Amino acid sequence: MKEYKVKILDSVFVDIDSIANFILSVSTPEHALSYTRQLGAEIMTLSYLADVIPESRWLSVKKYHPHAKQMRTRNRRLTIIFHIEGDTVIVDKIIASSNIVS
Q: How far apart are CA 17 and CA 94, in angstroms?
């Protein structure tokens, strides 16, 4: 099993900030911090899971990269969109899972 370096694009950090701000609007700062830490940990699992995940068949995912892959988070509400370049997994976007359409 190959292990990849994980690179998170700046735009993904904006996505994570938006998620944290939404959680802050409906819950506590502790909940927002816990959720974003968990999300970060899930992103880092791509370092060893990226190879086993197939390319996405959805056009709404492929618009981020022609060889985009997707991984739903444990709570299934978010989808992490990424692709592999050489020895690096590049995280392109985090979107609501409900936004994935053909």
A: 11
